[in-house]
Predict the structure of Lipoprotein, putative.
Amino acid sequence: MRCQVGAIAVLIVLALGGCASSSSWTGVYHATVEGVTGTARVSASGDRVRMEFSSQRKTSVSILRYDRGVAWLLAPTMAVYREISLADLRRDVPLFFDPALRVNRTELGKELLDGRDTMKYAAEITQNGTTFRGYLWEAVPPLPVPLRWEDKRGAVVSWEQVVPAPIPSGQFEIPGGYAEAAAALGPNVMPRAGRHSE
């Protein structure tokens, strides 16, 4: 019952245009920016998010701590990390798990998306001084994150396999044995920042 109440609270917060809550969930995140697609396995709990990126050449982990205003960029194969301000992350798409995210939306109607009932919106999203304009598809009933975001430049974000799940708090900490790295890791773990997305 407590889990159901928590899930309802999450949906209310999202419906009001915010994001993040005390519930925890996992999902798969896909972002396509300028023709390049990145995929991450995401675990989130309230204002803490862990994103695991894998490719044939490397694996990297980003831990976003909105409660501290920092991101830790981890290179597991080297057991090193770098701490940067969340404001310094490069991005071309909104980060829908940011508690400060603000969404103004206009309902456009129901639509099937990959066989699932959704509500489509024209949306303007403000995050850290950047304004994004595009279209948002939310599941009916809503999930902690939208199913899809598209802007007029062709940037696309989609989510799949979003499910409630307990997540150990240690997943949102720097693992033991990691050393702080030199600046070589850079903030390129996220897409580049754009002032406006139209």
